[in-house]
Design goal:
two-stranded parallel sheet; alpha/beta
Length: 376
């Protein structure tokens, strides 16, 4: 029992140290301030994959075409939609917008987001490629922020912050907290090179570096992961540099998931890629987060056999984890200006271990549900 106690507390303390490191790394990142004058205005290709997004695609397109960086082309890659997505895209009268209906070129069974983007890149003409999702809304200076960040810092790829649209339901509050924390970890990880990650809903890459990365990128057998595999492939090269644009002017808004089941499936999809990641420190950091959360329900199970000492261990471990989480998440809520009530913090701390453990365990299964299809 005592060996188990010691190992559990060492894991909890290691997690606390890791999140302290991420928090301090985040605090050292300067905010990206947009210059009034535009240095250069290269052609930027924005790529958006859509599948049954009739409720959100119009707002997404309007926000992109409304950019202050006008020298852009928008490629909407419709992936076999069965609703009115195509008709809505076709209703826009703008020469910068091009719609490609992938049902005319690629089979539905094997065409997921990664394949759609790979095909769409072949139609892109820009010096830079920017990526977002069909359910996202971008601010008017989005492209300027990302491009300026790349130009000023000599970056080959830049990742921007993602924010969940706020709502009254607890799942929306929880996901807002979770995604805000992921943005902090992403930025801090890129800053320190301890964890290399990125979100395909908000990313820009130099066209030439994208082409080079495709020749040796990992995870080619997976339906998703176009974002994190791309970031890691470029980050691990000696002659390239990746970074994070820390600015609300570069944040992308997304509605988030509607049910806990959908959220678990999304997290399962994310976790399923960890074993294929080429960056070893990222895999180890992710493993520590998973083990730390998984130990908490294990403590409760062992309480049936070892009694009260396991309850005390559970409470101590949960307290350490909650302190670490609050330390990091409070930076995210401050940056994104998210108002979280005390009882919502408490519920989030209680639910989070399960929302890490369950998708992590399920990720060992080779398949998951995504966009009304089953894939791996």
């Amino acid at each position: 029992m005592w060996i188990y106690f010691v190992i559990s507390l060492l894991v909890a303390i290691s997690y606390l140290v890791l999140l302290y490191y991420f928090t301090t790394s985040w605090q050292k990142i300067p905010e990206c301030i947009l210059e009034e004058s535009i240095r250069t205005s290269p052609l930027i290709t924005v790529l958006v994959c859509s599948r049954n997004e009739e409720a959100t695609i119009a707002s997404c397109i309007k926000s992109i075409l409304g950019q202050t960086h006008q020298n852009l082309e928008l490629l909407v890659l419709d992936n076999h939609s069965s609703d009115n997505t195509v008709e809505i895209v076709q209703s826009f009268d703008d020469a910068r917008l091009r719609l490609y209906q992938l049902d005319k070129y690629l089979p539905e069974k094997t065409t997921f987001k990664k394949e759609a983007l790979s095909w769409g890149i072949g139609k892109a003409k820009g010096t830079y490629y920017a990526f977002t999702d069909a359910d996202c809304i971008v601010p008017k200076n989005w492209l300027r922020h990302l491009h300026q960040s790349m130009e000023e810092r000599g970056l080959d790829l830049v990742v921007g912050p993602v924010r969940i649209s706020e709502g009254e339901r607890f799942i929306q509050v929880y996901e807002s907290l979770d995604v805000a924390g992921l943005s902090v970890v992403t930025a801090a990880g890129l800053q320190s090179s301890l964890l290399i990650s990125g979100n395909g809903a908000n990313m820009m890459v130099h066209a030439g570096k994208y082409a080079e990365a495709q020749t040796s990128m990992q995870g080619t057998g997976r339906a998703s992961g176009d974002d994190i595999f791309l970031v890691q492939e470029i980050a691990v090269r000696e002659d390239t540099k990746v970074g994070f644009c820390k600015s609300l002017g570069a944040q992308v808004w997304t509605p988030g998931t509607k049910t806990w089941e959908t959220l678990i499936q999304q997290r399962k999809r994310w976790a399923s890629k960890n074993g294929d990641l080429p960056h070893f420190p990222t895999r180890m950091s992710s493993l520590l987060v998973f083990i730390n959360s998984t130990l908490l329900p294990i403590h409760l199970i062992l309480a049936f056999f070892w009694g009260l000492p396991m309850i005390w261990l559970f409470l101590k471990h949960l307290t350490i984890k909650s302190i670490a989480d609050y330390m990091l998440l409070s930076e995210g809520t401050k940056f994104f200006q998210i108002d979280v009530k005390a009882h919502q913090w408490l519920l989030s701390f209680l639910i989070n271990p399960w929302m890490v453990t369950i998708p992590g365990i399920l990720s060992f299964s080779p398949t998951y549900r995504w966009k009304d299809r089953t894939t791996r």
